[in-house]
Protein: AAA family ATPase
Organism: Sphingomonas citri
Amino acid sequence: MPVITLLSPKGGVGKTTTALLLATELAAQDAKVILVDADPNFPLSKWAALKGKPDNIEVVEEIDEETIIDTITEARRRAKFVIVDLEGRASGRVTNALLVSNLALIPMQGSALDSNEAARAFKNVKQVSKHRDKPLKFAAVLAKTQASERLWPRDLKQIIAGLQEAGIPVISTALADRGAFRALFSFGGTLATLKATDVGSLATARANAAAFTVDVLTLLNEKAPA
């Protein structure tokens, strides 16, 4: 079963939010999803402790770099998708997780600092890929952006062009900076269970997350949900 790993040396770029959105969107298609929470702060475990976690999402905590491969391997036997939320800094745990992943996603925002930090992550991914039997697929994720591409600053567009010139794929659908995404960590549950009285622009947020998930599945060559 596919293992999707999210990593970034820089905090606050939307890594955990991206992992949760993917998990909840896939679970909404009746897929069994296991989230491996390998962030030392265990943000996904905190979300799971709130009300509304779908029954077909399981969160497993993992803090040991020596056992993370076993944790992921066991999880993929029981789930349609395994999504791993890694810590920000480079470590043996990051390397080991990438060795058994099918896709590495690196969220980033539109700044030179984000771009430089993401470059470190891509370098790490490419290095690990050399030691695998099969090359590791990877892509950049634009997170916490303006909702409309017309409002993207010039430096973000330059960063995207630079990534493409370097042969780094970029997921077509950017995840905008939306209150509905942040609200999941306060209210629990999924975008489908949030109420319009809790957060604004909910329908737009749902469409954004759904389109992003289709893009990820396409990159994985998995069947996209209807």
Q: What stands out?
A: The radius of gyration is 16 Å. Strands lie at 3-6, 33-38, 57-61, 81-86, 103-108, 137-145, 175-176.
